[in-house]
Every structure is written in structure tokens, then in C-alpha cells.
Amino acid sequence: MKLLYKKILPYILAFEIFIVSLFSCSIPVYAADFMPRDIVQAIEYGIEYNDWQPFWIFLNESKDGLVYLYSQMGALVTIDFQAWVNNNKALESLAETVPVPAKKEENNIVFTKDFMAELKKLLDDYAAQNQPFKVEKTYKMSQIPASAFSSKEGYNYFKSYFGSSYVYIVCNPQGFIGYIGDATPCIKEGGGFVKSGSYIRILDADWQYAKFSMNKYVLNNRDENGDFYMSVKENFTTAGSLEHYNPNKTNFNSYPQSPMIITPDGGNIRVFNTIADFINYSVGQRKIYYTSNYYDYVPEDLSVSIDDLQKTIEDMQDVIDKLLEQIGNDTSESEIEELLRKILEALENNPGGGGSGGGDVNVDIDLSSTNSLLSKILAKVTQIFDKMSGGTDGTGGGILQESLDAVLARLDDLNAMLKKYLSEITGDLDDIKGQLANMSEQEFEQKSDSFLGEVIDAFSEISEVVKTKFPFSIPNDLRIFLSKIAPAQSEAEAVLYLDDMSGMVLYSGEHGGNGTTDGETNPPGGGGASRPGGSGFVSVDHGGGGGSREPAEMREAPVFRLPIVIERYGIEEYIIIDMAPFDPLSRFSRSFFTIIFMVCLFNLTFKVIGMWGDIIG
Amino acid sequence: MVNLIKILLLKIFGLFPDSPFSEYMEGMDTTFFEYLNWFFPLDTILNMFLIWVNCVLIVLVLMLVKKYLLDKLLGLLASLPLPF
Description:
The structure holds two protein chains of two kinds. By secondary structure, chain A is α+β, with helices and mostly antiparallel strands. Among the domains of chain A are: 36-130 and 303-356, no CATH class; 135-280, no CATH class; 490-578, no CATH class; 586-617. Chain A has 19 helices and 19 strands. In chain A, helix 2 runs antiparallel to helix 3 (53-61) and helix 13 (316-324) runs antiparallel to helix 14 (333-349). The longest helix of chain A has 40 residues, at 399-438. Chain A is elongated and about 140 Å long. Chain B is mainly α. Chain B has one domain (10-79). Chain B has helices at 2-14, 22-26, 31-39, 42-79. At the A-B interface, helix 1, helix 15, helix 16, helix 17 and helix 18 of A face helix 1, helix 3 and helix 4 of B.
């Protein structure tokens, strides 16, 4: 069976090479920027040789790698960040501080906690140098406790004041005299927040300090009976700056005078570093987009499966680009966060394949809950659907229905065509069956033999030609080479002649006989070294006398015959080095190398198939 | 019919160049390979490699077939009229 397989194998290989050659002519080559297989190799290399240089180089050169890692923290970085990393050789410093950036656990890549922490630090450094603003939290309206106010009346007034606006300012909530105002119009018209020492100033659309009106409420008024009552004076004063704003305050009694910036959803606001930064800011300059998760992110091991990573990376940039296009100058931080949440969802939930790509990523991100952008998207989708189905607008006139009808009509045609072909095939089969039924066994055997003989003759002639033609000849060449270096048992009669100058003779048990004489070359079968009867490793043969040996094995142990001939003294001795006692060692060695080769083939298999997968996309 | 196919294939394969290895293979001295083969499994490795190449090629051809069929299917779907 093995011999048969050996003979057939070259033809199968030749045929396959032919087919592959035909197909490979029109295969487009697709090179992705970030190939998880590459990073897996870099990680494996780093673990094996404790050399992470390939990993850092790969990460440095790959755009998608850093984008992906930061997206898992809750931030999206642009190409400018990648350029900054390259220019500042930022990853080189990381290579010194993070000895082991990643591990491989079965089918998962695990980016270590230290690595993620250093990456976050890197982004923070970048933001401090390049981002014109910091993102500050606001207080969520529903989370303001009554204890933030000095009395229940003040708290009740605070709750009653809030409407559907977006940004409210409350000053001195712990005092008996407090101020509360609505900064929303100012911000919506193009104003913004600017850091100025310990102050946060509010600028209007004309880049001047905003002066929005604030109501004053006084809690310690006394009536004629001496009871306290609260009075409110509307539009009492204007405010444009907030001192000692601390968005992380949990103890509301600690700084009674400190103001609060309150939004319905506790979203973030942009606080620009300088007025010039505020004036010069435009969306195009923005380098980083944060979600609230980024600020709450605690570095930990990030584990992601290789398959998921592949799916996610494939179309990540497209998804990001399309959604980021929707950010304009007047998009608030909350809306941006919602947008980012959608991006990450798209990356998490898209099942992969096809045009939009995406994939399942094991990311545990709980993002903020603004619904405004989702509502807009929902409205748009609803509008499109209505148009398609000829719904509320009616402008589409049932386009979807028409298209479905067209598809069904095409499927009907296809179905009819298939039926026709099937009936033809089954008709032919019936004819054949009828002919076979009318045929006697002898006739059938005769006809089948004749047909098979004709086919075999034809193809054996073709195969003879094919195995001499390059590149189809390669398997056959390999087979010939194989038969030369490892002859089968019947061919093991090859006696190796080396003249006495070389002093070595390969033993062949089939040719025991007289030894060589000086100056003569032994013809095959005429002499040569003979394996001595004993089992010694080195023996001395006193000329001539051959021995016998056990039945030949598949691979003969070499016997070296070193002649010592001094004619003057009549000395003709031979030192025979017989390797036969080492046969068990030979078998072990062969098995050992075979196992090593098999392991290499296992590894190579994945690489070859992976590479091929990349080539054909 | 079989003869026609045979002639056609012979003509096609006749266009390919002859193997550049075979003539050198004949006169090659493989003495030391036989020594080597006693403890290093050259024969096993080559056999195994041939079979492995065969298997890998089959896998690759199947992958190509899969891609070809998928492309055809997608092409067919793309040719259908779109709703908008």
C-alpha cells in the first residue's frame, strides 16, 4: 500500500499544483495593517527568547494595534497620536519599563496589566501636551443629595428649578443665601468652559465672559412671627466664573461655597486650557475621544481571543471613520460619548465577514446613557425604512416590495432552470440504467474493462509526460531522490566502494567474501568488509576472511574498514569499525528526529494555511 | 473522446519546460546520505514531507474552491436589484 501510495503521490501532487497554478493567477493579495497572527508570532518569540523587540516594532508600525488597545480602555485615538508615538519613540520607553507586555494562553492573547497601565499613562501624557482641553465630569441631577443644601427648602427650590435644560449652575448651596442659574443658552449658542487658575470661566459665543442670570434664594428670612421663610429674587445677578469647582466631591459639606455644574445625565464637559485654545478649537484638531470609561479605567490584564481580534481589527477603521464623521463643532461631550459607545458596540456585535466586518470582542464596557444621538439615528433609520416600504412618507412607492418581487422572480427562473437540467440529467441516467439492465454481466464486464483500460492507457501516457515537465516534475524528482538516499530492502545491495586511499568500506551482508587486496578495487559482490561474528565495535581482520550476518535490515549499519597494509613486512591488517551494536541508538535517534520533524510540520501547517488565508482574503 | 482529451492535455503539458533536476539527479553521489540515513531519518522525513505537502495542497485547493464559490454567490447576490 505504501509503495502504491508513493507511486500515485507524484501524480496527485502534479495535478494539484496545476490546479493551484490556474487559480492563483487571479488571486488578489490583501495585506492588512494589523494581523493578529503577526502579533501572536511576536508574542511567542518574546516569550521564547525573552526578546520583545519584534513586538514593540510591530506595535510601533501598526496603526490598528494601538487604536484597538485604547478602544478597550474607552478612548479612540487618531492617526496623529500614532505619529506622535513614532516621533517621540514613546514605545521604546515602554519597552524598558514593561518587561513582559503580553502572554499567550491557548487561543487568547493576554495584554498584561503593567502594559495597559503604561499605555494609559502614555495617552495621558500625550493629552496633556496636545489636547487643548480637559474633559471634566458634571454632577448628575438625580444624584445630588438633600444634604448638599443647608435646608430642605433650599433643596426643594433646587429641584423645582430644574427643567429640560442641559447645564445648571448652583453656587453656595450650603449657605443660607444661594444662587442658581441656567447656563444652557450660553453654551448652546457657542459658548464654553475655560480653565483659569482655580476658576472655571464660562465664555459666550463672542468669546467674552458669559453673563447669564442667576436667581438668588434666601433661606433665613423671618416673618413677623419670627419664623423663617425662603425668598427668591429672579434675575438677581449674573455669573461668569466658578471658583474651586470639584467634580469629584462626595462630601458636599466639605466646601460649602464651591459651585456645582449639574447636567441631567452627569455627562462630561470640555474645559479648555486657555481662551486661545477655546477660540482656536475645531473638530478637525481633535486627537483623542474619550468615553467616561476611560476616566474610570483601572488597568488590568486584557484577554482577547485571536479569532475575535482578527474579526474586530479587519474593519475597525472603517467603522470608526464613518461614525466620527458625524461629530461636528456643536456636538457635546455626551453626544460624543454616545457615538463612541456605538462604535464600540459595532465592534463588539458585528458578526464579521462581508463588507462591514467587525466581530465579538470580550470587552466589559459600561458606557454612559445619553439617548439623544441614538434617537436621531433611530429617526433616520425609521425614515429610511418608511421610504423603502412605502410607509408614512410614501415617496418610495414600495421600493422594498418591488425589489423583493424581482428577487423572487429571479429565484423562480433559477428554480425552473435547475429543474430543467435535473430532468435532463435524470433522463440520461434513466437511459444508462436501461442500457445496463439490458446488458449481460459478461458484456458489462467487457465494456467496463475496455473503457477503463482506454482511460488508464490514455492517462498513464499523460502522467509519463507530466512527471518530466516542470513544475509538475518536482514530486517525481523528490521520489527519485528519496529512492537514492534510502533504498528499499530489495535495493539495499549497494556496496560502497572506496579505494584504499579513502580507507573506508561500507559493509554489505550480502557480499561476504574475501577482503580487498591492495591496489585493487572490489567489484560488487566480490569482497568488501564483512561483519564479524562477534558483537564488538572495533575488531581487527587479518585479511581476507569474511563473515556472515543476520538478515539485512532496512537500513544497514555502516561498517568502516580501515586497511593497514605494509607489503615490505607482509602486514595486511584491517581495522573494522562496525556500527551494528549501535542499532538501538540509531533507532532511537531516528524516532527522535522524526518526532521533532513532525512538531515542525505541525507549526508549519498553521503558518502555511494562515498565510494562504491571508493571500486569498 | 478520451483520445481527444489525451491529445489536448499532451499538447498543453508539452508547452511546459523539462525538469531541470532529473539529469543531475542521475549522476549524484549519495554515499554519505546513506550513512546519514542510518541515524537521521532522511527517508521518513522526505516521505512524511511529501504526504504533508499533499495534504496541505488539498486544504489549499479546498480553500480556493470555497472562496470561488463564495465570490460567485456574492456576485450573484450583488447582481440582484437593490431596494435603494
